[in-house]
Amino acid sequence: MDWRRIDLNLLKVLAVMLEERSVARCAERLFVSPSAVSHALAKLRQMFSDPLFVRTGGGMLPTARAQSLERSLSLLKAVLDVELEAGRVSAPGATFEPGESVRDIRIVSPGALEISLLPVLAAILRSRAPHWSLTIEPFERRSYEIDLATGRVDFVLSVGGATPTGALVDAAVVWEDELVVLAGPRSALHAGSDRISTELYLAQQHIYPVPWPTSQNYLDVELARAGKHRKIAFSVPSYAALGHVLEATDLIASMPDRSARALICRHPDLRLIRLDPPRRSQLSLLWGISALQEPAISWARSIIQDAAAKHGDAGGGTANRIGSGQD
Q1: How many CB atoms lie within 10 A of CB 61?
Q2: The whole model's pTM is what?
Q3: Which residues are within 8 A (CB) of 109 and not within 5 positions of it... i.e. 6 or more apart?
Q4: How confident is the model at residue 320 (pLDDT cuts 50, 70, 90)?
Q5: How far apart are CA 172 and CA 54, in angstroms?
Q6: In the chain, which ranges are continuous DSSP H helix?
Q7: Which pLDDT does position 86 carry in this prediction?
Q8: Torsion over CA of 50, 56, 60 and 66, rounded to 10 degrees?
Q9: Are 308 and 180 contacting, i.e. CB atoms less than 8 angstroms apart?
Q10: Of residues 128 and 219, which shows the higher confidence score?
Q11: Strand partners, 274
Q12: Residue 126 burial by CB count (10 A; 0-12/13-18/19+): exposed, middle or buried?
């Protein structure tokens, strides 16, 4: 099929139908009659040799073929949106002023950054772009290509380089962190050496913040490959409770070094202990390539990098070696 012979208005109908799953609502959004939408669907079915939608009691259910087309249409829409926005901003007399603009930035982030990078980033945004809002989504080990390309999320902070990238997504390493242990006064490790072996580490009872199952956690996957496992005695949904639990129990927790230092600032009785051999991982920043054409997104990326540098200055060490990630 030669794309130059396709009526591109049909793709617009298909895109809206995939969102609405109703001929009447699709017609209303496109400012056409329901019969016009039905006529367009007939042409689309012939074009793709598929019924595309099946009428059910709950509306028009897309077929597997229609669902496969949804990804391509979403990517096309995202690229067009960026191009149109770039054209609007680059128009004569148009300028981008962060302090006067309104924008919601959506970032996917690991839990450990709640107590390290994210507070610094929030402070910078409040200072330089007070009308912006920041929404954080929990990080998952999966591809975020479509999310970034379509603009559903603006950035992904990925731990360990495990998040796939593609032709539509670019990435840069923000920093490398070291996995360390935090122990409270009740722990047998609190009065011991500054560095412990893997064997001694595994002999302890652990507290585990649960962003994802241990079967998807890079540390536990590495240990399992060697036939070793941690003893998880207590799981919590975030890092917020770690300091209080470590102070009240003999449990230990594993986390990136800068996150550990952030907790020690709030709970000075906790002690940081390093592992021997050391374990390190990278934190990467991912973004949609086409999205950087939008000045707001390009500026936001620079702000995230600025926040990383400021966090490094505040936490000790260089800006390229500040803690992140997840245990």
Answers
A1: 13
A2: 0.66
A3: 117, 118, 136, 137, 138, 139, 156, 157
A4: very low
A5: 44
A6: 8-20, 23-30, 34-48, 64-89, 117-128, 145-149, 198-202, 218-225, 242-248, 257-266, 295-315
A7: 54
A8: -30
A9: no
A10: 128
A11: 180, 195
A12: exposed
pLDDT at 316 over 60: no
d(CA 20, CA 24): 9
Q: Please report where in the chains the tokens 């149109």 appear, as a residue.
A: 84
177's tokens: 């962190």
**DSSP code at position 180:** E
Q: Over the chain, what is the mean pLDDT?
A: 83
Amino acid at 304: I
Packed helices 295-315 and 117-128: angle between N→C axes, nearest 10 degrees: 130
DSSP class per residue in 264-327:
HHH-TT-EEEEEES--EEEEEEEEETGGGGSHHHHHHHHHHHHHHHHHHHHHSS-GGG---S--
Q: Helix crossing, 23-30 with 34-48: angle to 10°? A: 110
Per-residue confidence (pLDDT) for residue 270, from 0 to 100 = 95
Residues 6+ apart with CB under 8 A from 231: 202, 204, 205, 206
User: Is the Cβ–Cβ distance between 72 and 148 less than 8 Å?
Assistant: no
Higher pLDDT, 46 or 292: 46
Give CA–CA dist 78/290, Å, rounded.
Answer: 8
* pLDDT tier for residue 68 given thresholds of 50, 70 and 90: confident
Give the closest residue to 147 by CA, choosing from 139, 138, 155: 155
Token pair belonging to 309: 């540098």
Q: Do 309 and 319 form a contact (C-beta atoms < 8 A)?
A: yes
Which domains does the chain show, CATH number per domain? 3-89 (1.10.10.10), 103-327 (3.40.190.290)
